[in-house]
Structure prediction request, 787 residues.
Amino acid sequence: MSMEIAIPQPAERETYLNKEYGVWSWLLTTDHKRIALLYLISITFFFFIGGFFALLIRLELLTPAGDLVQADTYNKLFTMHGMVMIFFFLIPSIPAVLGNFLVPMMIGAKDLAFPRINLLSWYLYIIGGVLMLHCMLTGGVDTGWTFYAPFTTNFTNTNFIEAGMAIFVAGFSSILTGLNFVVTIHRMRAPGLTWARLPLFIWAHYATSIIQLLGTPVIAVTIVMVAAERALHLGIFDPKLGGDPLLFQHLFWFYSHPAVYIMILPAMGIMSEIIACFSRKRIFGYSFVAFSSIAIAVFGFLVWAHHMFVAGMSVYAALVFSLLSYAVAVPSAIKVFNWTATLYKGSIHYDAPMLYAFGFLGLFTMGGLTGLFLAALGINVHVTDTYFVVAHFHYIMVGGAVMGYLGGMHFWWPKISGRLYPEGWARLAALIVFIGFNLTFFPQFILGYLGMPRRYYDYSHMPEFQVLNVLSTAGATVLGVGYLLPMIYFLWSMRYGKPASDNPWNAAGLEWKTASPPPTFNFDEEPVVTWEAYNYEELDAPHTEEVRVAR
Amino acid sequence: MPDSTIVGLHHEEQHHPELLHHFADPQQQRDASSLGMWVFLATEIMFFGGLFCAYLIYRRWYFGDFAAASKTISMPLGATNTAVLICSSLTVVLAVWAAQTARRTLLLGSLAITMLLGVTFLGIKGIEYRDKFVEHHVPGASFSFENEPVPGHPGQYANPHHAQIFFSLYFVMTGLHALHMIIGLGIFLWLLMMAWKGRFTPEYHTPVEIGGLYWHFVDIVWIYLFPLLYLIDRHP
Prediction:
């Protein structure tokens, strides 16, 4: 007992960041917050690799002639860009970084249900990533990220089996994250935190996890079949041997269409948090926003064949899939309308996270509406495999998911790092990203509508496409600057940023009721929830008693 | 009162060295582990689902060829394996019950017999694979399936390409199933070691339960594989 008195009190409060030092305290950690940071570093690395490939693609398309790289190299560039960005950046981005960090804190838990499985998930991601890097360094793959059979199984000379293994392993990392979230959300909520009081970020991650759990195994087994077919010429997908390449496309898109919702749903969860906070209002239509996430997850599984309208399927099947594709727009629209209604008569603050949220609203709406064009059978046939499709899905994945990710990173950065980022620079970066993004991808809608096909490195027979391509390349450069800026000032702020208070935004939500950065077990005492989510009117009202703070 | 609750909790924690720090009580930990396994099994259903989908499509397209190919795999061996696995499910249930009721000998015995039955299954499967290898029915360069009659259609012979698709699916599906069996044996070996050390008590036996869930699931996959692969068009 007397020993304790002799030890001087540490000057600094103990947090998850300074509790232990040393490489192994990170590489063997089971703390969800540290694993989130491990993921943050890894996915940022892959983001810049994927971005580098994108830069080379845009440079090649600056001039109509195929002059910068050769056709084979170009095929590899867009393949590696797609595979890296989708499987190693977008899919893990929000769930594995922000979700990992925030899901336990938002529900008042000490950690995810299975901390060691969480760490295993990161190691699987790294194994997959190393395989992918090795594959790239030894020649890459030219199959397109969609690796369609029979090209992939019978014809390509590149090492698809290794890339497939990389995706297979990374897929299991995604499954384990989803499994952890579902169990944690079901079993670990703090007393009083009913489903109807959950932040919408949690609902969005729950819906995302369902897709990760039920979709990813299908692509995993598809990769097994493709690899077996490629190694042994079994005939499963080879029409010459009685197999059906369309079966591959069905299995592939059964995962890969819902995968888009793995990317966008968590971003939608972030939107709900940011828009409510910076409008100082309860989210409009809470239960509609919550259940629309589940509806997107369910409907998302029933629309995959709209990627295959020109691949040869019955017109009746096409009609049904077209109709269902329209149906999935309904829950998405419900969200956008509810966010807009939340803004109405809110006291809106234009901080950087909110600028990203506004960017998301506009860009996601554009991406969603052009998705409806593509769900229409006639237009779909006209613009299949053109830049219209490329522009559409970049509006969803980059305009939607990446804007959401960046908005979320800014919103929660004070909580993650305990420091404030420089607000002026952040607003500037948000503006640069928005302008750069539109300059890059809006011209591609026009290009695609005019008939420029995707995946072509040479358009010298159509030199009139050059103006729009130059605009797009210029925009990509601006966008690149917009992405570099946050990385620089986030790193800068870790050392020089002003220390953040526990709740710098005066936001609702349990994660703001603990310290910044949080202690290892998140809360010093177990929180008890007695209020609705987004009780901003209550928080801002001067006369009400103070909301209980769990410190 | 609150003080005594806290003391009570501490007391309980000392009694459960298996209670991990982030769970409030053993019940929550048990519920989480059990739900985790159920969710994992849902992903497994989707994993095998892709193969079942491929199987059903080609079986519908090439029914005669599939029936002819199915005739060449050994129904008696498959049926024996089905019986072996059903018995192993019984011993798994006995193991769970033994853990719940603190019957150490029964627990150890049931786990060991389960493993023995699992190894028997893999042994019989190995014999079947060997037969296929000898008959050149393994897909690949040396595959051969000439002049095999289509059951019920005298004078008609199976298309070797289509039969090869059957055997491809046969090997991928039973191979993945066997891989799951091997993983299951690993899990049960670990359970046996833990049980030997006396780690399972009526209060704490979640690993036996969820390991058992996994084993049952792998059994059920076989229950579907057996009729689909072995019993195509077997009626007299």
Notes: Chain A has 17 helices and no strands. Residues 326 and 372 of chain A are 6 Å apart (CA to CA). Chain A has one domain: 31-540.
